[in-house]
Amino acid sequence: MVPNKKDVIRLLEKIALYMELKGDHPFKIQAFRKAAKVLEMDDRSLEEIDQLTELPGIGKGIAMLINEFITTGHSSILEKLQEEIPKELVYLLQIPGLGAKTIAKLHQELGIQTLDELKRACVEGRIRKIKGFGEKTERNILQGIEQFNKKTFRIPLAQMLPIAKWVEDRLSDMKGIETFFRAGSLRRLKETLKDLDFVIATNHPKYVREQILQFPNIKDRINAGDSKITCKFSFDFDVSVDFRIVSPDSYPTTLHHFTGSKDHNVRMRQIAKARKEKISEYGVENTETGDFFTFRNEKDFFAHFGLPFIPPELREDGSEIDKVEELPDLVSEGDIKGDLHMHSNWSDGVHTVSEMVEACRRRGYSYVAITDHSQFLKIANGLTKDRIRRQLELVRKLNDQYSDITILAGIELDILPDGSLDLDEDILQELDVVIASIHSAFHQSERQILKRLKTAFENPYVNIIAHPTGRIIGRRKGYSVDIEKLFQLAKETNTALEINANPKRLDLKPEYVKIGKEMGVKFVINTDAHSKESLANMEIGVKFARKAWLNKQMVLNTMDTDQLLHFFKQKKEGKSDSFT
């Protein structure tokens, strides 16, 4: 199977990661990361690029490496790095808050390469003696180890999605498959996953089985039966993948069964039992007559029981079956009329403002907000007042070019550790939309954090609070915040709270959104995209919002352009407004 462009990008990023673990020169590491970004920015496939070296940032060495990978499916440089770097060091990357650069330093200075060695070095106070480290670093590492040990080895969704796509790319290229789809926790969009599940429909099960067992990266073949294959794949971490192989007739009920959840399936079996029927993964049997039913799709399966199609993300505790009348009002991706949080190459994004706008036009949006970082985040090349005004001019010119989309000039405004905002009102009032967020001093008390947030909420120019708890799934819990007080401030000030669609964040959690929904808080679903490709995360964000049974009337970016601008204007004028 010939590697595609995404495979090449992943290879370059992986080499950069391993180089960082090895402690290579930052320039070399950055060269591979830049090459990966350049390829990601280019819309062409590998076949359409005549000379890789024509792309900025890709020299002869990296071009040769890419060609070797395309030709052979292997990379001698990556394989050499994998031989040089102890596997235990890669394993340590799973500890929340511990990055490759820190791990490399610990390995070089103290010879640490296992989890036990790392914990012992913290307990003995040896890490604080390394230049640039300290007691706080030791405490943070110990907290990360404790958090890691509490996990039942569930892997964050963001880390599993590329592997799922890798599997799907290979299944798509296989012969003999009628159709296939992801199942299990991945299909229900859980924020952490234990493994991956796929259901495959085929009339040639043995042929399909043989091809799966020849996939690259297989570390162990745990089960190789006729209808179920379980393989452990080795990437930066080990992942177990289940493949269920069934006939096309059985596929819809098998897909439903292995999507779960367990509680949803139990409830469906109870409904069937009351009708003197029995659900299996192969179909539905009438226990009195012996009649056996199969279905064209899951929609027909649910219709057989007098139910509308229940989307996978809602199939959790069985109570969803009692709320099916609410389904038509739930927010859907088709309701979204714009994305109000994204970054361009003016700060830490990959693409230009024009490229982000064009990508949003292709998605059929009515509006888009460009919200690069403000000046406090120097590491993200945050915008000063002067640069903001220059970007404003660019946005005005672009708006003159388009009649089908409105470009909103915005900023992601930092809420500073001392409680002040990163920019004065004289510049904020010139912008169409202001998103405020916390990126620093996460250690502060709940009281201090709430005080910082209150400053942003009460500012007449702040429209949205982004990623409101600051979490990064599996790596950072976020800051301490009183959720009910957060929602109360949002309601009182007519400020929307973001549901961040980045799979690394998915902030706010559905259980929090449910509380806000009851309190009448307004939400906005944003991607926080740093590239054109990341705009596709809107699908994930919407599904995550649906987990909280959020209806479209409560989501800001289901409004049309005039309604949205009116809503923003109301806050500036100190008025309250509703979704009408």
From TrEMBL:
Alphabetic keyword roster: DNA damage, DNA repair, DNA replication, DNA synthesis, DNA-directed DNA polymerase, Exonuclease, Hydrolase, Methylation, Nuclease, Nucleotidyltransferase, Sodium, Transferase, Ubl conjugation
Residue span, DNA-directed DNA polymerase X domain: 2-316
UniProt-recorded Gene Ontology molecular function terms: class I DNA-(apurinic or apyrimidinic site) endonuclease activity; DNA binding; DNA-directed DNA polymerase activity; exonuclease activity; phosphoric ester hydrolase activity; zinc ion binding
Domain of life according to the entry: Bacteria
GO terms for cellular component: cytosol
Primary location recorded for the protein, binned into one broad class: cytoplasm
Claim: DNA damage is one of the keywords in the record: yes
Swiss-Prot/TrEMBL catalytic activity: a 5'-end 2'-deoxyribose-2'-deoxyribonucleotide-DNA = (2E,4S)-4-hydroxypenten-2-al-5-phosphate + a 5'-end 5'-phospho-2'-deoxyribonucleoside-DNA + H(+); DNA(n) + a 2'-deoxyribonucleoside 5'-triphosphate = DNA(n+1) + diphosphate; 2'-deoxyribonucleotide-(2'-deoxyribose 5'-phosphate)-2'-deoxyribonucleotide-DNA = a 3'-end 2'-deoxyribonucleotide-(2,3-dehydro-2,3-deoxyribose 5'-phosphate)-DNA + a 5'-end 5'-phospho-2'-deoxyribonucleoside-DNA + H(+)
Ranges for domain Polymerase/histidinol phosphatase N-terminal: 338-417
Cofactor(s), names only, from the UniProt record: Mg(2+)
Keyword DNA damage: yes
EC identifiers of the protein: 2.7.7.7, 4.2.99.18
GO biological process, one term: DNA repair
Localization per record: Cytoplasm
Pfam families noted in UniProt: DNA_pol_B_thumb (PF14791), HHH_5 (PF14520), HHH_8 (PF14716), PHP (PF02811)
SUPFAM superfamilies found in the cross-reference section: DNA polymerase beta, N-terminal domain-like, Nucleotidyltransferase, PHP domain-like
Cited function: Repair polymerase that plays a key role in base-excision repair. During this process, the damaged base is excised by specific DNA glycosylases, the DNA backbone is nicked at the abasic site by an apurinic/apyrimidic (AP) endonuclease, and POLB removes 5'-deoxyribose-phosphate from the preincised AP site acting as a 5'-deoxyribose-phosphate lyase (5'-dRP lyase); through its DNA polymerase activity, it adds one nucleotide to the 3' end of the arising single-nucleotide gap.
Listed NCBIfam families: PRK08609.1
Name of protein: DNA polymerase beta
Species this chain originates from: Fervidibacillus halotolerans
Gene expressing this chain: polX
